[in-house]
Structure formats: structure tokens, C-alpha cells
Amino acid sequence: MKALARNEDSMEDDTLEAVASSLPNPEQCAADVQRHTSLRRAMDQLTADHRAVVDLTYFHEMGYREIADVMGCPVDTVKTRMFHARRHLKTLLSGDSSDWL
Amino acid sequence: MINEHEKIEMLLPWFVTGTLDAEETALVDAHLLECAECQMLCGEEYQLKTDIASVPIAIPEFGVSAAMNERRPRIAPYARQVARQAVSRWKVKPLQVAAFAAAQAAMLLIVFQLAQLSRTPGAEFRTLSSGEVANKANAIVMFNADTRESDFRALLMKANATIVGGPTESNAYHLRIEPAIRDNRLKALQENAQILLAQPIDGE
What pLDDT, in 10s, does the model give residues A10-40? Predict the structure, then answer.
């Protein structure tokens, strides 16, 4: 019986450890919040057209041809806007976190 | 003149979202094998894509409300489907092309004559397109495929929006909303279940 109880205790510990390891640690949560805040702040500083291209690409997962159609502009304009938006974001975010970009 | 490296670099955002066609994907794959800089940039693109896609809260400033967050997966496939249908509609026979070209030439002539007329000094009327800045789109909106015409009109009226262009092949409409109220009206549109996308763009 004692051996059985020890075995059950061991299984409970294993389960708890597995659950604990699957949860994000507080440092990770804080880092995520910081990244999201920085991202929103940086996005706010883009022009509406640049923001639209970034949003439609990454959030709505549209291809550049679809974005050109939706925004009513040439595909090369979409690519150029994305290129500049990406560069602005990189500059804006580089000051907020050393491990970002 | 844009070189091969810059051309690939510009495609990376859509490479990481998997929205390039097979030929472009192969092109990027081949370049990545031999370009360390693009490998690094590609890693950055993945990070940015992951972060933007995982932002858990509503971001009305760039066209995303909490309600839209849930509807997000439906937008891109829907836009693609509508665009494919539009493309297949334009697969016409040579005779149809000739007839279309003749009709288009006649239409261009009429448009040209109207344009000349509207430039006449002292003309007593204004064409619909003469509003210049006042008619420039400052928002994009996409409706659910099953939105009724009456709901469509009601939503636009409630938003004080004027249609400037569209529907595009992806079924997007370009709107003009008074700049002072635009963000509020777009936010209200984003909350409506009939709306797939309501996005501000530069209007000036």
C-alpha cells in the first residue's frame, strides 16, 4: 500500500510539474506585454497607408496582390509601402528591446 | 534599378505569411540558401508576423476590434475566393475581346469629351469627380458576403460614409468619411458583425 501511495504521489508531482512547465513564467508574460505595448506604440506612428499594408499583410494574411486590389493601388506601391513601414517599425522598436528585431 | 537581392527582400513579408505563388516562393527559397542577410531578415519577419498576429487586444487604430479579431480568419480566404471568381469571369473569347475593345474605345471618347467640357471656363455644372480632395477615400471597408443591400446602405449612412470607389475584385469599398469623425465611425463599423474589415488609409 505504501509503495502504491508513493507511486500516486510521484504521479501527482509529475502532473503538477508538467502543468507548471506549460504555463508561461511571469518574466515571459511581462516581456510579452512590453513587446505588445511597444508594437502598438510603433504602429501608431506609421501613416495610415503604411499601417494598412502591415495590418493587411500580417494580421489579415493577405497577399500583396490582394492588398493592391483592396487599397486600389499598384502592387509595387504595396511593396514599397511595406518596405518603408518595416524600416520605420525596426527603427522605432529597436530602442524598446534589445532582443526585438 | 532594383536588384535581385532587393526584389527578394521586398517579398519576404509575404513569404513568411505563405501568400506568395509557387514561382515566387521557389525564387525566395533559392535566394535564402545563399544570402545570409536575407536569412536574418526572414527571421525578423517571422518574429514581427508572430507578434502582430498574437496581439491579444483590440487595436482600432489599425482596423482591428475585439469582434474582428474573432472574424479575422474568414477575411483573407474570402477575398481570395472573390478575386478568383473575378479573374475567371474575365477569361473571355477573342471575339468578345474585340467587341469589348471597341466598346471601351467608344467609352473613352465619350469620357474624353466630357472631361473637355468640364474644363470649359464658366461651366455652370460640376462633375461628380470634381470634388478632388473632398472625394478622396480615407477608409476601406469589406462586408460579409451575405450582407443585404438594405443593411449595406444603413451601415454606410450610419457611418456618414460616401462610397468613393469599389467594389474591387476582392469586394472592398473605398469610403470617404469626415476626418474628424472617421476613427469613431470606423470603430463602430468594426464592431458590426456584417463588417469583415474597416481600415483607415491616408486620405489627403
Answer: 666 777 777 767 776 788 788 878 888 888 8
The 10 Å Cβ neighbour count of residue B174 is 23
In the chain, the amino acid numbered B74 is R
Indicate the pTM of the whole model: 0.67
For residue B81, the chain A residues in CB contact (below 8 A) are none
Amino acid at B81: Q
> Are B162 and B41 within 8 A, CB to CB?
no
Rounded Cα distance, B95 and B107, in Å: 18
DSSP secondary structure, B11-25, as one string: HHHHHHTT-S-HHHH
Q: Please indicate whether, in this complex, the C-beta atoms of A55 and B79 are within 8 angstroms of each other.
A: no
Complex ipTM: 0.72
What is the spatial distance between Cα B104 and Cα B111, in angstroms, rounded to a whole number? 10
Q: Which residues pair with B195 in a beta bridge?
A: B143
Cα-to-chain-centroid distance, residue A47: 21
DSSP B192: S
Asked if B159 and B189 count as a contact pair (C-beta separation under 8 A), the reply is yes
